[in-house]
Every structure is written in structure tokens, then in C-alpha cells.
Amino acid sequence: MYSIGIDVGSVAAKAVIFDGKNVIAKKMIPTGWSPKESGIALYNSLLEHSKIDKNNIRMIVGTGYGRIALPFIDHKVTEITCHGKGAHYLDADIRTVIDIGGQDSKVIRLDEDGNIKDFLMNDKCAAGTGRFLQVMAHALEIDVSQLSDIGRGAEPQNINSMCTVFAESEVISLMASGASKESIAAGLLQSICKKTYSLVSRVGAESKVFFSGGVSKNLLLREYLSEKLGVEIITSEQSQFLGAIGAAVIGFKK
Ligand code: ADP
Questions:
Q1: In Å, how far from its chain's centre is CA 252?
Q2: Residues of the chain where predicted confidence (pLDDT) is lower than 70
Q3: Would you list the domain boundaries of the chain?
Q4: pTM for this predicted structure
Q5: 9-28, pLDDT tens digit by residue?
Q6: Element containing residue 177 per DSSP (H, E)
Q7: How does strand 57-63 pair with strand 2-8?
Q8: What is the CATH number of domain 2-124+194-253?
């Protein structure tokens, strides 16, 4: 028997199949304009890719902002709860999750069973999120995945604006005035680091600290944050799938 966890986020839709012990298949596609259409496409392609029989799926749990649009799920669970259970499944010693996704960032404190002790979420604007980095990478004419390598070793340029629209103009002006892409990339990551640090400071960061969401793939940002918080921050290859993994773990136990 299997469970499926599906996390339809603002930027990416992620889904996994769980056999009670391991994640046996995973898939991610862009969410695009319709969470419902992308959720259905993702579900179908995950089943096709894994070749498992639909009759062996005991539960499908949906999470993420698009979960309300999914017609085929058995349960809906909040992202906060799913991230908690997903982190606990990956490493039972995780006590803090810092998640930076496409449109929001959150800090979640967990107890020893992966239950939520406290959390704080910033979903008011794109400042400090993946979408912010995508816009800035576009202004720098690079891919968002290159920001870390490009910024490494550079002296961070001070970026004053946090609002995505103003920061984009500031980046364009900085380039026009001769600032290097390297220093701007480092400066942008420093500004996200400061913003995330202020969110984390309000909830506290107990070790182990885990970094999740698509932005956790940015190694330089993880290093900046580790240094600023004074704790080691761990992550995993599966970190962007944390919500989907938690949803599948919850589904398997239902
Ligand atoms: P959501 O759940 O809101 O859709 P995700 O957690 O899936 O968000 O993260 C999406 C974000 O991840 C994108 O906005 C992008 O900025 C960031 N991202 C994706 N791949 C990378 C990468 N290789 N390096 C840095 N950031 C990345």
C-alpha cells in the first residue's frame, strides 16, 4: 500500500509516493496559471512514472496554497503541519524548519514528535522569497540557480530596497553604474539573509535547524544564514519536497 502527498505551491507543484518507509517516486512541475490543472497533470504523470496500481493507493493528501483546487485528494492539511511531519520523517532530531518558497517564508519550531510548537510566516509580499530572487536573477540575466555560485567570494553590494519592484530598479541602476553581477548577487542574498534572520529571531532557532523550500538550494544563502544565526543549518536533496513528503507521511498513517 502507498500514500501520495501533493504540494501545489505558488511556483512549483511537487508530489511524492510513500510506501510507509521510503519515498519511492517524486515529481515536480511548474504550477503555472492553474493550480487545478497542474495538480491533475502532476498526479497523472507521477502515477505513470511510478507504474504503481491506483488500487494500491490508500490515501492522497494535498497541501500548499493550491490544495483547495484539487478534486482528487482525500484530505487537505496545512503546509505548516506537513513541513513539520516531513522534517521529522527526514531526521527526528530536527527542531526548527526555515522554509523559503516561491511566495512566502516561514519558521517552524517542532517538538520531538514533529508536532508544531510555534511558527511564524511571512506571506504578505514577495520580499525575501523565491519570486524575489527570480525577478532579480532575470534583471542580472542569469538563472536563479546561478546566484549562489556567482555571488560566492564577492564583496556584497548594499541593496537598500526590499520591495521586489524597487529592488529590481536598484539592481538595474547598480549595473548601469558599473557594479559587478557578482557583488550584486552576493548583496541580494545578504538582504534575504537579513530578512530571514529577523523572522527566525522572533521564534528562535533550536538545533537541528533544517532549511527547506526551493530557495534552500542556494548554498551561499545557507552559509550566510548559518553564520548569522551561529548554528549549523542542514538541508537535503529532497528539501523542496518537504511539504509533499509530510503530506504523504500523514496520509499513510490515516
Ligand atoms: P512554492 O512551494 O511556493 O511553489 P518552492 O518551495 O517550490 O515554492 O520554491 C520555489 C522557488 O525556489 C523559486 O521561486 C526559486 O526562486 C527557488 N529555486 C528553485 N530552484 C532553485 C535553485 N536551483 N537555486 C536557488 N533557488 C531555486
A1: 23
A2: none
A3: 2-124+194-253
A4: 0.96
A5: 999 999 999 999 999 999 99
A6: none
A7: parallel
A8: 3.30.420.40
